[in-house]
Amino acid sequence: MSENKKTGVIGFPVDHSVSPTIHNHWIDENQIDASRYEKINVDPEQFEEEVGRLKENGTYGLNVTVPLKELAFSFAEELTDVSKQTGAVNTLTFKEGKVYGDNTDVIGFQRSLDKKTIEENITNKRCLVLGAGGAARAVISALNNLNGEVHICNRTYEKAKQIQQDLQIKSEVVDQKDLGAAIYEMGFIVNTTSLGLGNTENTMVDFSQVGSQVFVYDLIYNPKLTKFLSEAKERNVGYQNGIKMLIEQAAESFRTWHNILPKNSDVLMNKLEGL
Prior knowledge:
CATH superfamily of the largest domain: NAD(P)-binding Rossmann-like Domain
CATH topology of the largest domain: Rossmann fold
Shape: globular
Helix content: 40-55%
Structural class: alpha/beta
Strand content: 15-25%
């Protein structure tokens, strides 16, 4: 059993996060002696100072969301192989006087996909990743694990090239101006950017040019149907938001901190639907 461990999620902003609902549900369900999981805003410019203070105040574990995952990678003293591969950390653990960094986004993304989508849209198919941040690094690694043919596109071409060099995974970088010609052949398109969040318009993908075989995935889960996914729905192609990935990556973090791998359930999904 845990000994009143303090855990939470950090981001900037982090107000939209539903991670507390997930973790606190599992804490209660498994009758774990732990503090309530909280969300904490951390300014990227004060990352080391603020996270250091949380560590000194007895925090045991932190989930890390945008835009802090690469800062967390640099902050961690001990890294798992998967976090080294991605160059990003979404789970920090403070124990034995050290800071441990892991990336559960890779396995979280893989587990969020059903067998049919993997077989029909990813394996040996062209997969387009939009974005070049910490989440993109995890998704690219996961798609590579599933034998997808990875293509990367970012508004800033140089950042996409940098992620390709850093990951050392076979991939192609697509210039945004050439995206229209390339997009029809994609079997899978995943958005790892803030496109479609709030009032942000989708300015990268022209859905009139996608093929009928494509499956569209958006890591954003709030709102459930982003403008990006709305356009996919209008094209009558398969689509999915990021809630399953959020739950699956959270489960791995939870296991790291509490030595229990929790399960998704209708009760938890109903709680999230009600938010």
